[in-house]
Description:
Layout: E1 3-6, E2 11-15, E3 19-26, E4 30-38, E5 90-93, E6 104-112, E7 131-139, E8 144-153, E9 158-167, E10 173-185, E11 190-198, E12 201-209, E13 214-218, E14 231-236, E15 246-252, E16 257-263, E17 269-275, E18 282-284, E19 289-291, E20 294-300, H1 304-318, E21 332-334, H2 336-339, H3 345-357, E22 362-365, H4 387-390, H5 394-402, E23 407-412, E24 416-417, H6 422-426, E25 446-447, H7 453-470, E26 474-477, H8 499-517, E27 522-525, H9 535-538, E28 543-545, H10 552-562, E29 571-572, E30 575-576, H11 589-596, E31 602-604, H12 612-634, E32 636-639, E33 649-655, E34 661-668, E35 679-680, E36 690-693, E37 699-701, H13 702-707, E38 710-711, E39 731-738
Parallel strand pairs: 21-22, 21-31, 22-23, 23-26, 26-27, 27-28, 28-29, 30-31
Antiparallel strand pairs: 1-2, 2-3, 3-4, 5-10, 6-7, 7-8, 8-9, 9-19, 9-20, 10-17, 10-18, 11-12, 11-14, 13-16, 14-15, 15-20, 16-17, 24-25, 32-33, 33-34, 34-39, 35-38, 36-37, 36-39
Helix pairs in contact: 7-8, 10-11
Amino acid sequence: MSIVINESESIISIHTKNTTYQMKAVHNGLLVHTYYGPHMNGDAGYALSYRDRGFSVNPYDSKFNRTVSSDTLPLEYPCEGSGDFRASAFSVSRANGASGCDLRYEGYEVVKGKYSLKGLPAVYADEEEAETLLVTLRDRDAGIKVVLQYGVLPEIDVITRAVQITNEGNVPVVLNQTASACLDFVSGEWELMHFYGRHANERAAARVEIAEREIVIGTRRGMSSHHENPFIVIAENGADENKGQCVGMCFVYSGGFSANISRDAFGTTRAVMGLQPELFNYPLNPAETFQAPEAAMVYSAEGFAKMSHCFHKMISEHICRGPWKNRRRPVLINNWEATGMTFDGEKILSIARKASELGVEMMVLDDGWFGARDTDNAGLGDWKVNTEKLGCTMGELADKIRAMGMKFGLWIEPEMVNEDSDLYREHPDWALTIPGKEPILGRNQLVLDFSRKEVVDNIFSQISAVLDDCRADYVKMDFNRPIADVYSRTAGTQSRGKILYDYMLGVYSFMERLLERYPDLLLEGCAGGGGRFDAGMLYYCPQIWCSDNTDAIDRIRIQYGTSFCYPCRTMGAHVSAVPNGDTRRRTPINTRAVVAMAGTFGYELDLNLITEEEMEEVPKQIETFKKYWNLLHNGLYYRLTDVIRNRKEAAWMMVAEDQSEALLNIVTLDATGNGPNRFVRCAGLDPEAFYKDEESGNVYAASALMTIGLPMPRIKLPGIPWNPTPGEYESFQIHLIRQ
């Protein structure tokens, strides 16, 4: 059993293969968190501190016992107004306007299998792979019932958390905050790792000390955003890839989120993760229930690599769904960086012909195929094929491309509308705008109100008519601006505090309907690149366009930060033209391919315009990807260099789970004449084995490769008697096979 209950001591322990999570009811039902760490049997409640702390208030039922205070105990689900003045996870307003809640433990239930969440993405598992723990808390005065939901996947050391709130009273209440998870650490010195960024530079890894202050990260943009990813790591000082304690928290949601991390005056570190409380005031009528999204947690005592492997397994096998989650994705070419919206049918076919000749397997038609869509100032909302521009119907274009031996894919942006569109002229109230106020524009477009079913139904009907005609194999679903005007024109709806949550439910329902209607569809997520790269989207899309920035060197850093939570197989990555459109940097096509192979792999350029030498390389790259795809997508991923601090070389490797082979990838980030010897230290190999470099034939002791490292490869140039060190942006792939 993964869930063990000590009834006499009111202790609940959750065990995974390598970890234990524990909570305990104390003092008239205060539910405290006592432990999260390596596998442990026993009661960790001995670490609770009971002292009379000045200005820490006490529950009324403790009477003259001033040593009991919600302000100093590590609480499992802290609520505002309970006497805990630290960051709360839950806040509710009563009918009289007063806020405050006093949640007490009432009981538990253990269920075989993993709970699911209606209308929301969540980790899933077969019945024999998981257990569910339901812990009931109740505020009897306010009539509020809170069920803490825990899912346990013991084999991969994952524990999930979600929260369900029911109004059992006779009058409405308003939820002001409903976080999904709280973790208190009563000891230790900790740091926060978070993943910040901006458009075209997403998920840069940053570490900051957790001191006596609150650190709040998140997004108010109505999307998980380019600016902060809904994934954080609490790591002990000095933790690195291979050593030290760390806890990862991943929010399985694609809208606004908040993570509050702090250390209090008495040394307890707290991390709260959940829905963004700003613009969230969710009315709950009597007998109604609200479901908060899910957060997933992993503890590792062996550093970041072990933690990442658990999250990668969770996302690959228990978040991603459908026929494509474990299949090699087709090598595609997308026309966006080649043409923008300036194209006709013959231009698309010319790109497809050359791509087909070189071994590319799918042609994707990006933005500009519908309505009056020659610029981004018009057309969104009118999902009718521009047959004049294409010179044929979409079905006919798809048939021509399939006749070349390729699959066919299409770009859509269903959540958006231009004012210059037939849809907006007919239904201006379908956009999220505020009456009497000029709307805020982004990319000269507005956001459709996906909290309204009739809006979702209309867009789904339009787009499915196109997909029915062309029988698309692949759809890229984009979202190109944040939500600023949070107001719905729905009759009778005055509270804007539920719109953003209901909006995400509408988006998820749209995606679920796509997958139900087209069960073999490969759906890729996108939001101006990586603006909605989160586990919530991955429940519907087995891959997400990692960033609009396709520069290989920038992509190394973007994919590095992304890899802490998300597996390579989920990262949309393409070889694009040089000089790069964002950075103007020139990198060899081999390097661009090596970097893109740490993702789904494809092309984003006009292959008619590359050099003859590069044209010879493309089929070789595609064959290399096919040869190694199982290792690239299913191997254990190791970050060998910290590319944020180390600007000399980037190195990463994928190791088969049985350690029978590995693929080492290296890109030089700088070059110097007659430089010092440089080595790349491998990881994850069988320490007792020897490994052979498939190309050179050299055989190495694995322990030496993981201790000394592999010397940086040298370059062989005709006419030069010595082998110089690699130049800037040179790349290498070394296939190691256990002997």
